[in-house]
Amino acid sequence: MQLRNRQDFWSGVMFIAIGLGAAWQATSYQMGTAARMGPGYFPFALGLVLALLGAIVLLGSLSKKATETHVEKFDWRITFLVIGSVVLYALILKLLGVYISVFVLVIVSSLASHEFNLKVAIGNGIFLVVFSYLAFIKGLGLIFPLWPSFLGMN
């Protein structure tokens, strides 16, 4: 057997390592039963599923026929935009509220895409604001500031 796809091989190794690490860490919590799950049950199962998917990806990268794959260089700009947008969201949530913060998060993280389109980003932002409201505020009843605190509309 030869390595057909290096990206898939190393991705599979990474998924297996992270999945097994998460499952191992979850064993330090109470497991419970399938009917009454403890705090370690879901992370343990999720870690095992991730490791299984990693094994599938790894095995798929092995073949008798070898092909050449090219790995592009790491793009730090994209990393900083995505992580920076999440940090920015955390910093402005209390000040600007959920609606504006989610919208800003989507727009800033959309700048990381090579196919950035402002209309699509605005549409995604509006959709996620509505989804966040319906899922977290109405559906789960979570309490977040919805509008900027200086407007006094909460």
Automatic annotation (TrEMBL):
<feature type="transmembrane region" description="Helical">
    <location>
        <begin position="9"/>
        <end position="29"/>
    </location>
</feature>
<feature type="transmembrane region" description="Helical">
    <location>
        <begin position="98"/>
        <end position="114"/>
    </location>
</feature>
<feature type="transmembrane region" description="Helical">
    <location>
        <begin position="126"/>
        <end position="147"/>
    </location>
</feature>
<feature type="transmembrane region" description="Helical">
    <location>
        <begin position="41"/>
        <end position="62"/>
    </location>
</feature>
<dbReference type="InterPro" id="IPR009936">
    <property type="entry name" value="DUF1468"/>
</dbReference>
<keyword id="KW-0812">Transmembrane</keyword>
<keyword id="KW-1133">Transmembrane helix</keyword>
<protein>
    <submittedName>
        <fullName>Tricarboxylate transporter</fullName>
    </submittedName>
</protein>
<dbReference type="Pfam" id="PF07331">
    <property type="entry name" value="TctB"/>
</dbReference>
<feature type="transmembrane region" description="Helical">
    <location>
        <begin position="74"/>
        <end position="92"/>
    </location>
</feature>
<keyword id="KW-0472">Membrane</keyword>
<feature type="domain" description="DUF1468">
    <location>
        <begin position="10"/>
        <end position="145"/>
    </location>
</feature>
